[in-house]
Amino acid sequence: MVHNWDIVGHQQQLLGLEKDLRDGNVAHAYLFSGPKQSGKFRVARAFAGILQCPNGFCGVCKDCRAVLAGTHPDTLFVKDEGESIKIDEVRELIRKTHLTRQGKVRVILIENVERMPPEAQNSFLKTLEEPPEGTLFLLTTNHIDQVLLTVQSRVRHIPFSTVDDAVLRQYLVKEFGERPEMDEAIVMAQGRPGLAITLIREPVAFDRHKALYNQIETFLKRNDLVQKFQFVEAIEQEDGEVELFLDSLTRYLRKLVFEYMKMPRHALTGRFSLEDLVNLFEFLEKSRYLIDRNVNRKLVLENLMLLTEKN
Ligand SMILES: [Zn+2]
Most buried pick, 97, 176, 201, 281, via CB within 10 A? Predict the structure, then answer.
């Protein structure tokens, strides 16, 4: 690796980008797809740093510091703060690509481009296909199926997956030293470096994850819809709790699937079949998407809870 990306895992993706740089074959638009918090935006930001820094992302020069801080004049960030991207904002963005830039390249990073409704994505097509000279788009998405095929066909698509536990562990030990809670945090993070780092840095987040997981484990063992509805009603009112809940539920379902593989006559066989678990997984993913897009969260969560009830 020629550049200091400072990224956990994703070696294959980084090598591909390095090859593009080496061959002078950088595309005018990239789309990084994959799970939330797997490091896609971080890769996009490092790529912007490599392009803006005179020394290929040294990390300390004026350009690097500005890119990392999100204040670089030729590097525009459209971060996901939960809102969708409206057609007017896309037009404004397109207008900005025509402004005079200070350096040799303008980089526009759009986090979670699926936030654009189809009509906004459509209004973006022409610019994506032929951006003004010296403009590069770096798009990320957690939900590739929500990105129009016409958009996908105009970008260089690089899929990301989660990071191996062993790779994640190595990074965390190097960064934070051995910690007693390390292995548990790795299991909780499910291959997402962003989350693993948060869990190690913030003991409160770690404890909250753990507590929520234990609660889920307890209440999924029985039918008690009233209790489940009260539970989702309570978490729905707290910022960040819903995401945590969906995460913990995913982890619990994964654990169940894994246990079934080891032991087909599992104690819970009577409760959830493998087919039930697959259905739950699918619905969970759908719920995640709807909640990310601010669809009535309580309703989505209640429907999910209904699925966990058994006759
Ligand atoms: Zn630099």
Answer: 97
Distance 299 CA to ligand 1 centre (A): 48
Compute, in angstroms, the gap from residue 51 CA to the centroid of ligand 1.
9
Contacts of 101-105 with C-beta under 8 Å, sequence gap 24+, read: 101/73, 101/74, 101/134, 102/73, 102/74, 103/52, 103/63, 103/73, 103/74, 104/134, 105/51, 105/52, 105/74, 105/134, 105/135, 105/136
* Alpha carbon distances (Å) from 10 to 79, 149, 192, 293: 21, 24, 11, 27
Give the mean model confidence (pLDDT) for residues 199-215.
92
How many angstroms is it from 310 CA to the middle of ligand 1? 57
Q: Which residue has the tokens 């404890």?
A: 207
CB distance 152 to 173 below 8 Å: no
- Between the CA of 12 and the centroid of ligand 1 the distance, in Å, is 23
pTM, two decimal places: 0.84
- Measure 31 CA to ligand 1 centroid, in angstroms: 24
